[in-house]
Amino acid sequence: MTEKIGVLGKKSPQRTGVERVVNAPLPTVYGKFQAVGYLDHDRGDEQVALVYGNLGTDDVLIRLHSECLTGDAFGSQHCECGDQLDAALRAVVAEGAGVVVYLRGHEGRGIGLLAKLRAMALQAEGLDTVEANLALGLPVDSRDYGVAARILDDLGVKSVRLMSNNPRKREALVNHGIEVAEQVPLLIPPCENNITYLRTKRERLDHHLPHLDAVVSSS
């Protein structure tokens, strides 16, 4: 743990790691969740885990959902993020227990909102989502899932059934000590506005999206 100098010249500890700050009931259109709020002292981000039911420790159904303002709040069809969040919340309620960890600081695969909008503008000119990030001199994906693993640790979760099409999420959790018993597909039907984006995720980012085969073969 690092230290900082106080106003009187004394050293005071600077907090590190992830701290649980609050647990509040959150009734939603999906069901009644507990919103468990965390502060990531290392990055300064405020994080939240939406917990439904009694979790237990093993084979817990979870979603690590990267923040996406345009998709989650505005209903953008540029991506499938909003639909995935909706599907994940419905799935944990149907399961009777589960967690959706909403990861702030992950906007645009970690490049931030304004940079993501710049990348979207370049995609409108013909670049794909990978080429757009690189054209801006930005990483293709800079997300880190360490905070998610620490949140799951705090919730007592040891092994998960991970709702994701992204193999890197599975690898990240395993590397941080969380067992992934199963990777559960979270497949959203494509639309005209996001089919190119989804194909790029499959072809260049290794996302498992087998439902695109029918669309590709008929195009």
UniProtKB/TrEMBL annotation:
<dbReference type="GO" id="GO:0009231">
    <property type="term" value="P:riboflavin biosynthetic process"/>
</dbReference>
<feature type="binding site">
    <location>
        <begin position="63"/>
        <end position="67"/>
    </location>
    <ligand>
        <name>GTP</name>
    </ligand>
</feature>
<feature type="binding site">
    <location>
        <position position="84"/>
    </location>
    <ligand>
        <name>GTP</name>
    </ligand>
</feature>
<dbReference type="GO" id="GO:0005525">
    <property type="term" value="F:GTP binding"/>
</dbReference>
<keyword id="KW-0342">GTP-binding</keyword>
<comment type="function">
    <text>Catalyzes the conversion of GTP to 2,5-diamino-6-ribosylamino-4(3H)-pyrimidinone 5'-phosphate (DARP), formate and pyrophosphate.</text>
</comment>
<dbReference type="InterPro" id="IPR032677">
    <property type="entry name" value="GTP_cyclohydro_II"/>
</dbReference>
<keyword id="KW-0686">Riboflavin biosynthesis</keyword>
<keyword id="KW-0378">Hydrolase</keyword>
<feature type="active site" description="Nucleophile">
    <location>
        <position position="143"/>
    </location>
</feature>
<feature type="binding site">
    <location>
        <position position="129"/>
    </location>
    <ligand>
        <name>GTP</name>
    </ligand>
</feature>
<comment type="pathway">
    <text>Cofactor biosynthesis; riboflavin biosynthesis; 5-amino-6-(D-ribitylamino)uracil from GTP: step 1/4.</text>
</comment>
<keyword id="KW-0479">Metal-binding</keyword>
<feature type="active site" description="Proton acceptor">
    <location>
        <position position="141"/>
    </location>
</feature>
<dbReference type="Pfam" id="PF00925">
    <property type="entry name" value="GTP_cyclohydro2"/>
</dbReference>
<protein>
    <recommendedName>
        <fullName>GTP cyclohydrolase-2</fullName>
        <ecNumber>3.5.4.25</ecNumber>
    </recommendedName>
</protein>
<comment type="similarity">
    <text>In the N-terminal section; belongs to the DHBP synthase family.</text>
</comment>
<feature type="binding site">
    <location>
        <position position="164"/>
    </location>
    <ligand>
        <name>GTP</name>
    </ligand>
</feature>
<dbReference type="InterPro" id="IPR000926">
    <property type="entry name" value="RibA"/>
</dbReference>
<comment type="similarity">
    <text>Belongs to the GTP cyclohydrolase II family.</text>
</comment>
<feature type="binding site">
    <location>
        <position position="68"/>
    </location>
    <ligand>
        <name>Zn(2+)</name>
    </ligand>
</feature>
<feature type="binding site">
    <location>
        <begin position="107"/>
        <end position="109"/>
    </location>
    <ligand>
        <name>GTP</name>
    </ligand>
</feature>
<dbReference type="GO" id="GO:0003935">
    <property type="term" value="F:GTP cyclohydrolase II activity"/>
</dbReference>
<feature type="binding site">
    <location>
        <position position="169"/>
    </location>
    <ligand>
        <name>GTP</name>
    </ligand>
</feature>
<feature type="binding site">
    <location>
        <position position="81"/>
    </location>
    <ligand>
        <name>Zn(2+)</name>
    </ligand>
</feature>
<dbReference type="InterPro" id="IPR036144">
    <property type="entry name" value="RibA-like_sf"/>
</dbReference>
<feature type="binding site">
    <location>
        <position position="79"/>
    </location>
    <ligand>
        <name>Zn(2+)</name>
    </ligand>
</feature>
<dbReference type="GO" id="GO:0005829">
    <property type="term" value="C:cytosol"/>
</dbReference>
<feature type="domain" description="GTP cyclohydrolase II">
    <location>
        <begin position="19"/>
        <end position="185"/>
    </location>
</feature>
<keyword id="KW-0862">Zinc</keyword>
<keyword id="KW-0547">Nucleotide-binding</keyword>
<dbReference type="GO" id="GO:0008270">
    <property type="term" value="F:zinc ion binding"/>
</dbReference>
